[in-house]
Amino acid sequence: SMKNYIKKLKKFEWYIIAFLFLVVNTVSFFTQQRISHNLGRGWDGWMYHKLAYQLVNDMPLNAMAPYHTRIGTPFIASLFPMSDLVDSFLLVNIFANFLSIILLNIFLKLYLKSFSTRALLLMIFMLAWQSPTRHIYYYPALTESYYFIFSILSLIILEKIREKYSLMKILVYSIVIFFGTVFREAILLYALVIPFTTNPLSSKTITID
After folding, report:
1. Cβ of 154: how many Cβ atoms within 10 Å?
2. Greatest pairwise CA separation for the chain in angstroms
3. Which of 11, 40, 64, 65 is buried most, with the most CB atoms less than 10 Å from its CB?
């Protein structure tokens, strides 16, 4: 039936996205050299690595601002401790990047019904040098991968709020922002967007005599 065909097509769509993600990650893994500064920790990553190390060893948390507030990614990395914690960051950020691609496809689907167009945009996003999908193989100990998760998720919820306002959606949105700021304080900016989700000057709110 048509319904079964559509279901199979949707499932096939996710297989293609997973395959594209796997290809980009595989090529990046074998071709991209890791940053050598600070033993592969980089500059900002040195602070995130320090936080993860303190968490693994039950030490008091101590890091410079603003890194001391970005505890989310170091905490998740500390849950999967390896001999080199930089590898722990790489592992959890790969997972975050995959989740970001899934969310980005859901977001694009709100505006673009054509899967081929969405697949092309997803591929362009993954292939961009500064995209977390590729960049983490050069610089694993960063927080941007989880920032993208909360950023895209916020955009999806905002669109749902724009379609139909409800207190439950606002509550969910607030929870996402709350946890997102634990990874990157820039997520707080999304709290300022709520008043502008609907157009106060639309034809629905303006009457002309």
Report:
1. 20
2. 73
3. 40
